[in-house]
Design brief:
Chain lengths: ~160, ~325
């Protein structure tokens, strides 16, 4: 009885690995998005920033959008690129270690190097409010590794 | 739930398109902010793509208002006046505001009387009864959309005791109907679509002042007589002709309206027909298109509206019986 049981378990394991191998390749990495409101809190004369749940959000408030990535597979993934279109009611609050797009995600670069068409039809330097997408590049993620990307935005 | 969520997304898209030319007061209350990240990567030499969950939050309502006087200087008033103000919803959601006109401003030489408030529907700066919407003092305005201005007229009566050239300030204040308070004061669930309403930097109330100046023009009449007797002298004897002149002068400030001079013919004299003049020009005795009329009983000259500093001279002749 006992040996028979072990064989059955081994078969199940083989069967399971055979089935899950392609599934793991499809979704080795999971993304988890989150948003917080950045509040300036003054306590004992010292001002500090605190992140709160966005129970109340008003124009001018600063938000931080976070995307946590986890490689849940058992293979390393390469050329990991996270692209995040900005919601229309917000504008980018500051540049950071990411590339931005001011043309709806067609091209990316450093904000200072980008131009947009001004009101007079002539090109002008792109501003934070012109940013439509942000993008992060991570060369590789080891199996089981995780990380986080984030951007700060202000409610228009 | 799904269909509800879709309906909200569609509504937001419409709002975003409508508000494309940057709303001064920020994105409209009720706007949905939805964020989704997408990742691409290579695993086992195969390109893969994955989306994050979508985080979603709704923009709450800010209660803010601005009030500005539309009067550029002192507003002259004799007995009544209209003061023009503009009330603007500087919040990001629809809101009504209570409108209160206060004539008792510290430092006033006298306090005017507020007889009413009106919405200047046809935006002509004048109160047109039956066209403009009358409001009781302290009543609420109609609901104003975000950024919408409202022309408000404050109707004023000047007390008879007010001295000429005295000035008086009148203050119009507007307060969000939802509530007022220090910035950040929360009215839970009172915002758009059941969201919160939060008091903005204006404390959700604002006021502005306009200044009245009492226009008290005064009229002085100076009457003089010269006599020509039949003998070439100036004695008041029978058959002598008396020429009366009446000089009307407007003093003080402002304008007198509808000024008329009436002078009875003195007893024992007879009005000489055709001798009535205004500023040297003869007026017919008949009650007709010209300004004057004369009869055996009296002369009358309508001078109309005269500004301060103006003078008018009327003359007529009588014969001593």
């Amino acid at each position: 009885m006992k040996s028979h049981h072990i064989i059955a378990a081994a078969c199940a394991a083989v069967l399971a690995s055979g089935l899950t191998a392609p599934a793991a390749a499809q979704a080795a990495v999971a993304l988890k998005g989150d948003v917080k409101v950045v509040r300036q809190v003054t306590e004992n004369g010292r001002t500090s920033e605190k992140l709160e749940d966005p129970n109340q959000v008003l124009p001018g408030d600063q938000l931080v959008f976070t995307t946590r990535y986890t490689n849940g597979g058992n293979e390393r993934v390469d050329d990991f690129v996270v692209t995040n279109p900005l919601p229309a009611p917000v504008k980018l609050a500051k540049v950071d270690s990411f590339e931005v797009s001011v043309d709806g995600g067609k091209s990316f670069g450093a904000l200072a190097a980008l131009k947009v068409s001004g009101a007079d039809g002539k090109p002008r330097a792109a501003e934070l409010g012109d940013v439509t997408h942000v993008r992060w590049r991570v060369a590789s993620i080891a199996p089981g590794a995780s990380g986080e990307v984030k951007y700060f935005a202000e409610v228009r | 739930m799904r269909s509800l969520a879709q309906a909200r997304v569609i509504a937001v898209a419409a709002v975003a398109a409508a508000s494309a030319p940057a709303v001064a007061s920020g994105v409209p209350a009720g706007s949905l902010i939805e964020n989704t990240a997408t990742a691409t990567y290579t695993a086992n030499s195969t390109s893969q793509s994955v989306d994050s969950n979508t985080v979603s939050l709704t923009v709450d309502e800010v209660l803010d208002v601005a009030v500005a006087s539309q009067e550029s200087g002192l507003v002259p008033a004799t007995s009544t006046a209209v003061l023009r103000f503009k009330v603007t919803n500087t919040g990001n959601g629809p809101e009504a505001f209570t409108l209160t006109a206060n004539p008792a401003v510290t430092g006033n030489a006298f306090d005017a009387v507020v007889t009413g408030i009106a919405i200047d529907v046809n935006a002509n700066g004048i109160y047109d009864a039956g066209i403009d919407t009358a409001l009781a003092n302290g009543a609420a305005s109609p609901v104003l959309a975000a950024d919408q201005p409202l022309d408000v007229l404050v109707l004023i009566s000047i007390p008879a005791s007010a001295a000429g050239n005295a000035t008086s300030k009148v203050e119009l204040s507007a307060a969000a109907l939802t509530g007022t308070g220090a910035p950040g004061t929360l009215f839970a669930g009172a915002g758009v679509s059941g969201g919160d309403a939060v008091v903005g930097g204006s404390n959700a109330q604002a006021n502005a002042q306009a200044t009245l100046v009492v226009n008290k023009a005064a009229v002085s009449l100076v009457k003089a007589a010269s006599i020509a007797d039949p003998f070439g002298g100036a004695r008041p004897v029978p058959a002598a002709i008396i020429t009366y002149s009446i000089v009307a002068s407007v003093t003080g400030s402002g304008t007198v309206t509808g000024l008329t001079i009436n002078d009875p013919i003195p007893a024992g004299t007879t009005y000489q027909r055709g001798t009535l003049t205004l500023e040297g020009a003869t007026l017919t005795d008949a009650a007709d298109a010209d300004a004057g009329q004369g009869s055996a009983a009296a002369v009358a000259v309508a001078l109309g509206d005269l500004v301060a500093g103006a003078t008018r001279t009327v003359t007529f002749k009588v014969r001593i019986n």
